[in-house]
Design brief:
The complex is a heterodimer of chains A (243) and B (282). Chain A is of the alpha/beta class. Chain A is 35% helix and 25% strand. By secondary structure, chain B is an all-alpha fold. Chain B is flat. Chain B contains eleven helices and no strands. The chains are: A alpha/beta (243), B mainly alpha (282). At the A-B interface, loops of A face helix 8 and helix 9 of B.
Chain lengths: 243, 282
């Protein structure tokens, strides 16, 4: 079982007169883990929403496993910045909604995979932020998606919870082998998790860098090298204009 | 200050001595205290009334407590009370069922579909602007003083609170949750069942409570003006013969019916909203 490939050709997106995405070309292999980074407003979330068909595109083409995206695809799951659990349903009932067949057994299994089965009958309001995000992750995984789109799902969590979630996402990715596109503005998170880091700048791809580090990854000189390289690239234009 | 600290320590030590059995007794005591607090004003008024009647301050215009009690027993025994109560209850709930369900269904339609809202909003707002009691002459001429006119009046006044609150509840549902439902491939019915209806329920229940209150209000008016049975008729009829005890008894029954139905609505809301921490207290 492997994830789907993703192919983006000449993608443009306009909101009125503002061009948010300008002629994006990007190919993501099956099962690849790609981190999409960039400053706020660079278009990274828009790109993710375009892939999931939550936003219509102005021009170009997006293909998932060779097929053009026209509608929301049940094999593509999306994890938002906020968990978006239904507050009037228990954790388990929320996860069941993620299953295309509304299977309770699959939902229980998904909750086990994120280590949250003991909270199955709790209301979302009784969970911590990290637990809520884990429940949302279980809901995304219960249908065994081929592509997982993560829109800064960890940005609202505290540092320790975030590290745990990063490990959990990596472990689940290695086990299920789906394709992941992670939007983040945390460069070290991108280097820690991704096979490849793509930098979006002003609606264009500025940098596309393979992270050639072995897994499990540790924070050392090599990861620091990648982090510096990417950070320098991001900060370069700002420094130039400051001089 | 010192006093409250003292009583607090006394309470703690008493709890220790009494153990778990004492604890449950304390909860019981607390519950009784709460009940006393909630009913304190009616109880004080009742005692004051009894005192007034015992000292002979009350004239013929005010029934005494024992007169009221004897009348109540008499009306229960000869079946008058049960009969009128039944008639009033059937009117109230049929009217509420008609007006409430119409309001609920139209509120859902206008809340979800802009086209329906565009068509219906203006006429509904126009009808809403006419005071309910101003329609009374028209209804009486068209439908006479039979059951229909009373049901129409109740249905008309219970329609608006439920309609407006259902509409508002649906319009104010979190867009993010709807987007989540969309991406998880929920069908229209699943969207309604899982997201739209539960999201609007607290607002709908506010409308329902308001409608319940309006039901009793309009029922009194309708039964006072045009009826041959019901609690309102009982009071109007009693006025003719200056039977103050029956008039007061009717008021008491209306008050009890109103607060009882409100209590049921509040309990139902709490049960439906138990996922929300704000509804779990008290």
């Amino acid at each position: 079982m492997s994830g789907y490939s993703l192919e983006i050709r000449h993608l443009t997106k306009k909101y009125g007169d503002t061009e948010v995405l300008k002629d994006i070309d990007l190919t993501i292999k099956q099962g690849e883990f790609v981190a999409l980074i960039g400053k706020s407003g660079c278009g990274k979330s828009t790109l993710l929403r375009a892939v999931s068909a939550l936003t219509t595109i102005t021009g170009g083409i997006i293909k998932i496993n060779g097929k053009s995206v026209t509608a929301i695809n049940p094999e593509v799951r999306f994890l938002f910045q906020d968990a978006r659990l239904l507050p009037w349903k228990t954790v388990l009932q929320n996860v069941v909604l993620g299953s295309p067949t509304r299977s309770r057994e699959a939902a229980v299994a998904a909750l086990q995979s994120v280590d949250l089965e003991m909270k199955a009958n709790f209301w979302p309001s009784d969970l911590s932020g990290g637990q809520r995000q884990r429940a949302a992750l279980a809901r995304a995984l219960v249908g065994t998606p081929k592509i997982l789109l993560l829109d800064e799902p960890l940005s609202a969590l505290d540092a320790l919870t975030r590290i745990n979630m990063q490990k959990l996402i990596e472990a689940l990715w290695q086990k299920e082998n789906f394709t992941v596109v992670l939007v983040t503005h945390d460069v070290s998170e991108a280097v820690y998790l991704a096979d490849r880091v793509v930098l979006l700048e002003d609606g264009r791809i500025g940098l596309d860098k393979k992270i050639e580090l072995s897994r499990p990854r540790i924070k050392d000189k090599d990861s620091a090298y990648y982090e510096n390289l990417i950070l320098n690239y991001i900060l370069k234009p700002a420094e130039a204009s400051a001089v | 200050m010192g006093n409250s600290v003292d009583s607090a320590t006394a309470l703690v030590s008493r709890k220790k001595i009494l153990g778990s059995k004492g604890k449950s007794r304390e909860i019981l005591l607390k519950g009784t205290g709460n009940l006393l607090l909630i009913w304190s004003i009616p109880i004080i008024l009742f005692l004051f009334w009894t005192w007034l009647s015992l000292t002979g301050y009350l004239n013929r215009l005010f029934p005494t407590p024992d007169e009221l009690l004897r009348t109540t027993v008499r009306l229960i025994e000869d079946g008058t009370l049960a009969l009128n109560l039944e008639v009033s209850l059937i009117r109230a709930f049929t009217g509420l069922a008609i007006g409430g369900s119409t309001g609920f269904i139209l509120g859902i339609l206008t809340g979800q579909f802009s086209l329906v809202n565009k068509i219906l909003n203006t006429p509904i707002q126009m009808i809403k602007s006419v005071p309910r009691l101003a329609i009374l002459p028209l209804v009486l001429i068209w439908f006479g003083i039979g059951e229909t006119s009373k049901l129409i009046l109740i249905a008309l006044s219970t329609f608006f609170p439920i309609y407006l609150n259902t509409f508002h509840g649906i319009r104010s549902i979190d867009r993010d949750l709807l987007e989540m439902g969309k991406i998880y491939g929920l069908s229209s019915w699943e969207m309604f069942k899982n997201i739209i209806f539960p999201g609007a329920i607290s607002s709908i229940m506010i409308g329902f409570r308001q409608s319940l209150g309006d039901t009793w209000l309009i029922l009194i008016v309708a039964e006072t003006i045009a009826a041959k049975s019901g609690i309102g008729y009982m009071a109007t009829n009693a006025r003719e013969y200056m039977m103050m005890d029956v008039i007061v008894l009717s008021m008491v029954i209306y008050a009890l019916l109103g607060s009882l139905s409100d209590l049921i609505a509040v309990t139902a809301t709490k049960k439906m909203m138990r996922w929300n921490p704000a509804y779990r207290r008290t």
